[in-house]
Each structure stands twice: as C-alpha cells, then as structure tokens.
C-alpha cells in the first residue's frame, strides 16, 4: 500500500500529475485545482490511495489528510467509484462535503458531473455521522456560536466572492485559509485582497 508520495513534478494536466520518485515517473490522479496546476520542478507531497482493479492499478493523491479521508468514505458509498469521488473533491472542499452532509443537502453533490439525484441522496445518507471524526464537524455542522463567528462569516463571504469571480470553491476556500494563516486581517476587503493575490500568484506560476 502506497500511503504517500513526494517528489518533483515532471508533468501535470487536468486532474493528474507525474512525480519523479527514485528515477521513476509515477502518475497520480488528483482533484482538479491547485495540485494539478503544479508546474515541472515544483516539489509536492501527497497522501495517496491505491485503487486496485482487475485491469489496472491507479494511484489517487491528495494535498491534505481530510481530502484523503473523505475520498475513502465516498468510495465506500454504493455507486460512487474513485473517479466520481475525485470529481466530488474537485468541486467541493472536505468542509463543504461535511456541511452538506450535516444539513442533509444533496444539491452540492448533484452539481458534480456523473453524480445523479439518487447517488447524491445516497452520499448524504451514507456519510451521515461519519465525518465528525475527521475534525470537520465544526465546518459541517456548525452550531449557533459558530454561525455567528464574525471571522468565519467574513471568510465564507470572501470564498463566495472568489467563486463569483470564477475560481473553483475548493481553490477559493484554500486561498482564504492560506491568507488567514499568513496573517491577513479578518476584515472582508483585506482578506479578499490577500486571498486573491495568492490565487493569482498560483495561476501565474502555472502558466510559466
């Protein structure tokens, strides 16, 4: 079982990267977004899941443990294969998955290509009560105190604003979190500028 992989990016595309490991180029399927936008020479570290089929061995990689854990829960749902689970994590951050499940809201899953109404409902039912152990309970099932937290409300507003500007929801939320960790003010306009600068820098690097 390959639990993680680290190395320089040799090539990348929509939903995949090839990492150099011990002289071997290993292709890893990843959620569309920041990881798949890595450029040759970047060194990245991924948590991985090896999916074995009769005719293939496919390695799926994730930037965070939360993504990997949610992926594991998703592929355990009847009718959700690894590609569909990857599609969910390309469209939704782990916290968004937890929030939708906690709210019994299948609409976010129905927006994912390849996920129909029945499967979306099954995801919500099957994952109920299974994500709290991942440390996502606060994001997915916030109580009144969390809902009224000004910093969180500002962060969510900035995320929604970035999505409105055309960024994917996982990338937007990650940029907001990165900006906050870098010391950006919690005030809406300042946080928006900081997160947008991170996203534009990442896009500029991907186009080099």
Short key terms for the protein model shown above:
208 residues, alpha+beta, OB fold (Dihydrolipoamide Acetyltransferase, E2P), DNA polymerase, domain 1, Helicase, Ruva Protein, domain 3, 5-stranded antiparallel sheet
Description:
The protein has 208 residues and is an alpha+beta fold. It folds into 3 domains: 4-62, OB fold (Dihydrolipoamide Acetyltransferase, E2P), CATH 2.40.50; 65-140, DNA polymerase, domain 1 (Orthogonal Bundle), CATH 1.10.150; 144-206, Helicase, Ruva Protein, domain 3, CATH 1.10.8. It contains 10 helices and 5 strands, in the order E-E-E-E-E-H-H-H-H-H-H-H-H-H-H. The chain has helices at residues 65-75, 82-91, 94-102, 107-110, 117-127, 137-140, 144-147, 150-164, 169-181, 188-206; strands at residues 4-13, 16-21, 24-29, 43-53, 56-62. The protein has a 5-stranded antiparallel sheet with strand order 3-2-1-4-5, covered by helices on one side. A hairpin with a 2-residue loop joins strand 1 (4-13) and strand 2 (16-21).
């Amino acid at each position: 079982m390959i639990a993680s992989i680290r190395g320089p990016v040799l090539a990348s595309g929509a939903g995949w990267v090839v990492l150099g490991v011990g002289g071997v180029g290993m292709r890893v399927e990843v959620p569309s977004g920041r990881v798949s936008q890595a450029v040759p020479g970047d060194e990245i570290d991924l948590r991985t899941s090896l999916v074995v089929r009769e005719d293939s061995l496919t390695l799926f990689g994730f930037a965070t443990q939360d993504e990997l854990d949610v992926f594991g829960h998703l592929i355990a749902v009847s009718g959700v294969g690894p590609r569909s689970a990857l599609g969910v994590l390309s469209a939704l951050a782990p916290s968004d998955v937890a929030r939708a499940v906690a709210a019994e809201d299948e609409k976010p899953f129905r927006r994912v290509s390849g996920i129909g109404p029945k499967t979306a409902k099954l995801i919500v039912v099957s994952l109920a009560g299974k994500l709290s152990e991942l440390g996502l309970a606060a994001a997915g099932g916030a109580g009144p105190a969390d809902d009224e937290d000004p910093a969180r409300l500002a962060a969510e507003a900035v995320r929604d604003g970035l999505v409105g500007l055309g960024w994917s929801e996982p990338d937007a939320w990650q940029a907001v979190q990165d900006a906050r960790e870098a010391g950006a003010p919690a005030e809406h306009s300042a946080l928006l500028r900081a997160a947008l600068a991170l996203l534009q820098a990442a896009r500029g690097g991907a186009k080099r």
